[in-house]
Q: What sequence folds into this?
């Protein structure tokens, strides 16, 4: 089972790239973030013709998350992160696919720090922690996948000193991420590559992609039931170099079938 995550930064404007990548990479499940389209403008037909069923939660101009699957119609289990009825941002959607609970998330950026946006980011992470704790009680394989807008360690940025005042690298954000991992979740990419610089984002400015001046913002957290099935992980970095690309590259993991464990 191959699960991917991709912050597409506007799905309709980059649908050609999405379809090309799906054909080349052949992921079984995809978590998408930053759709930047309303629900009625989501390209359901094009994705279905490519072999992928979809569920999504759009939002005009901002945010938006979706899950794609090659396993047929998707059993949606949650839309929106619990804990704040006033939060209308489209940042979390969850489904049960091929025996795995998959939460697709787009965590708030939080900049500028300090400020109300950073405070919202930390509150959102507290809500995510509460929901993640609940998922651990289900006794099912689970994954929390998406753009976390957090660089957990210095290995996750090409230049740590540049980001000391950035919400993505603030100690508060990193501690919230660490607390989430320590509560029973495994950072899949870091488990397989504990000492390597691995990036999933390259800014549009200053030839960041060409210089490989990247950040690792997109993560797969696996619960203790799913973690033993992890066999491979990577980033399709070349996609970031395609014309009219998102500033993120798709990241992916591969899981062994239950019979293979």
A:
């Amino acid at each position: 089972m191959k699960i991917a995550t991709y912050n597409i930064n506007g799905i309709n404007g980059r649908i050609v790239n999405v379809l090309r990548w799906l054909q080349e990479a052949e992921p079984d499940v995809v978590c998408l973030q930053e759709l930047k389209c309303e629900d009625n403008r989501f390209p359901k037909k094009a994705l279905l013709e490519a072999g992928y069923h979809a569920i999504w939660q759009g939002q005009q101009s901002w945010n938006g998350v979706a899950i794609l699957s090659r396993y047929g119609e998707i059993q949606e289990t949650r839309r929106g992160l619990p804990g704040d009825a006033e939060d209308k941002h489209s940042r979390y959607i969850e489904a049960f696919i091929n025996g795995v609970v998959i939460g697709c998330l787009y965590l708030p950026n939080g900049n500028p720090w300090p400020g109300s946006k950073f405070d919202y980011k930390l509150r959102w992470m507290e809500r995510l922690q509460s929901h993640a704790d609940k998922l651990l009680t289900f006794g099912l394989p689970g994954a929390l996948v998406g753009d976390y807008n957090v660089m957990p360690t210095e290995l996750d940025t090409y230049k740590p000193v540049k980001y000391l005042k950035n919400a993505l690298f603030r100690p508060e954000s990193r501690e919230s991420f660490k607390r989430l991992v320590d509560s029973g979740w495994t950072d899949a990419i870091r488990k397989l590559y504990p000492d390597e610089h691995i990036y999933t984002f390259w800014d549009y400015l200053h030839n960041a992609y060409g210089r490989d001046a990247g950040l690792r913002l997109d993560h797969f957290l696996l619960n203790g039931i799913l973690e033993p099935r992890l066999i491979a992980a990577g980033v399709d970095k070349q996609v970031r170099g395609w014309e009219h690309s998102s500033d993120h590259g798709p990241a992916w993991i591969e899981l062994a079938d239950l019979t293979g464990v």
Notes: The radius of gyration is 17 Å. The longest strand covers residues 100-106.
